[in-house]
Design a protein that fits this description.
By secondary structure, the protein is of the alpha/beta class. Helix content is about 30%, strand content about 20%.
Amino acid sequence: MKFFSIAATLALLSSGVSAFPTLISKRDGSESTPTNKTILLTNDDGWASTNIRATYRELKSAGYDVLLVAPASQKSGFGGLFDLPTSVNLTEEGEFGYPAKGSPSWGHEEDDINVWYFDGTPASCVSFGMDYLIPKHFHNKSVDLVIAGPNEGTNISPGMFTLSGTIGATYSAVGRGLPAIAFSGRLENNSFYQDDIEKEDDDSFYANVYARKVVEIVNTLFTSQNNYPYLLPYTTGLNVNLPLINEDCMDPEWALTRLSGQQSVSAGISYNETLGLFDWLDVHYDPTTKCIFGDCDLPSESTIYYKELCQISVSVFSIDYDASYQQYRTAEKVLTSLFD
């Protein structure tokens, strides 16, 4: 089974070679344009967030067929939770009051049937798009790639892998056999897209920079695919984290990284004596710094983050959750008496 090199793809990105192809080679040897590629776009910050609308706009401008399906309200931190509507109408208003309370629990923009909300989590939004919307409204078209984000805030290391709704949507898509990428931006600004409409043509606006970088890696992936059967190796996805955008970092470089490794973050708690409540605490546990699988020479996502480098970390994850053969056999020896 053939797979293209993700490292080679990132090398192409870093080389300055144009990532905007006019022709893409398909498996049958024919040629197609990006308009033949369908992308399912979701997030966990809500369908009305500035980041997802900017990304939708840029992907459409690049020639892709994009279906946006995202939660009606903020669903950060829901991981892979699979929530479904409990009512045909919203019992609470959506994020930014859009849509209003009492609106249908799923629906689309009046002027764009490709932009949908769903009263669920990011993971269930993927299924809503694949299992309901596309068969019912879009002639059961094939999806070539699932994109989640860009999230409002970074999602780095194994500690965030199970907590992030952005990544939850991504590994849910990979579990369906779809190539998928989670994008997260360091800027945590939670903004309504309608408040930023006047910034659509501002090349320095952070959401536009993030969106262009999404298009850049997407175009490069499709270019690199050539006649390989999969856009990404089967059962794998990408976790991409974008840096803070400012006058010193307007065009960040790409860096291939690991999820685990030095300074990898996990979630912990600390007790606040004053409030009598608990606070979130970033902790560094030894197991997440160990390298068992993958390229142990790569830097961790966390290293890029804590050094505040003007780089975009790109990590490859797998949904094959089984332990290595050696780990399996070691555990088997401990349990031998159970199977005699």
